[in-house]
Amino acid sequence: MNLPRFILTPADLRQETVRLTGPDARHAHVLRLQVGDEVRVCDGQGGEWGARITAVSKQAVELSRPTPLPVEVEPALQVTLYQSPARGDKLELIIQKGTELGLARLVPMETAHSQVHFGSRLPKLKRWQEIARQAARQCGRTRVPEIAAPISFAAAVAEAKQADLAIIPFESAAAGDSWKKQLGQKTNVRTVSLYIGPEGGFAESEIELARQAGITVVSLGPRILRTETAGLTVIALALFQWGDLGG
Ligand code: SAH
C-alpha cells in the first residue's frame, strides 16, 4: 500500500480530531490531497494507522479517526530452502512448519547420500503444495510458499548465485565456522538460500563443490540435528537474523 505517510506524535493522535499542520499540511497540499483521500499516519514509535481526509484548509488537513493498519505478515527476507529428502512424512512437516516460520520457497534436492529418492514421489508435489496452502491459511500468511519440483544437488548449487547469501550447514564444519562467527556480522541480506543434507549427510565432494560455488559452510553447533530439525532451524535462524521472526 503506497499511501502518503505522515509522522505525527502519540499526543497528536490522541486529539479528538487528528490534524496535519505546519510542514505536514504543506506537504499534503503539494501532494494535492483532497477530501476522501486515504493517508497513513505514524506515531513515530512503530504504530501505524490509516485515515481519510475529511477537511482541507490552508493551515490544516483534518483526518477521520485513524484505524490500525493490517500488520504486514510477509517477511521482506526471501528464504529458499534446498532440502534433501527425508523418510516418511518429514518433508511435509518441514513444509508446514517452514510456512509458518515465513519460508518463501522450498526446493526438494537429491544428494549423493539420499536414502530416499524423489523419482517415485513426484505425484506428491501437488500434495506438498496443498500443505503449504493450508499452512499459509492457518497462520495468516497472504503468500503461499512455492514448492518447486525436485532438482539435483549440482543444479541446486548452480542456483546459489541468485541469492545475496547461500549457506550450507555441515556437521563436520569446524566449531570456528559456526553460524554465529561466519554470519553474525552480515547485513543487507534480502535473499538467502539454505542447503540441508539428508540423514546420511553431505558427501565431502558435495561440500567442496558448494564451497567453490561461494556457498558459506557453517556448523550449527555441537549436536547432530536430524535433517528436518536442521531445515526448520536454519529457516528460523535466517528469519530471526535478517527477517521479522522474533518481532
Ligand atoms: N549423517 C550425518 C548427519 C546428517 S544430519 C551424521 O550422522 O553425521 C542432516 C543434515 O543436517 C546435514 O547434512 C546438515 O546439513 C545438517 N546438520 C545437522 N546437524 C548439524 C550441525 N550440528 N551443524 C551443521 N549442520 C548440521
List strands and helices in order, with pairings.
Blueprint: E1 5-7, H1 10-14, E2 18-21, H2 22-30, E3 38-42, E4 48-56, E5 60-63, E6 67-68, E7 78-83, H3 90-101, E8 105-110, H4 124-139, E9 146-147, E10 151-152, H5 153-158, E11 165-169, H6 179-183, E12 191-196, H7 204-212, E13 216-218, H8 227-242
Parallel strand pairs: 1-3, 7-8, 7-12, 8-9, 8-10, 11-12, 11-13
Antiparallel strand pairs: 2-5, 3-4, 4-5, 4-6
Helix pairs in contact: 3-4, 3-8
The structure holds S-adenosyl-L-homocysteine (SAH).
S-adenosyl-L-homocysteine (SAH) is lined by residues 169-171, 196-197, 199-202, 219-221, 223-225, 227, 230.
Please, could you describe this protein's structure?
- Helix 3 runs parallel beside helix 4 and helix 3 runs parallel beside helix 8.
- The chain is α/β, with parallel strands linked by helices.
- The model has no long low-confidence stretch (mean pLDDT 93).
- Strands 7, 8, 9, 10, 11, 12 and 13 form a seven-stranded parallel sheet that branches.
- The protein has two domains: 65 residues, Beta Barrel (Ribosomal Protein L25, Chain P); 165 residues, Alpha/beta knot, CATH 3.40.1280.
- The protein starts with a strand and ends in a 5-residue tail after the last helix.
- The protein contains eight helices and 13 strands.
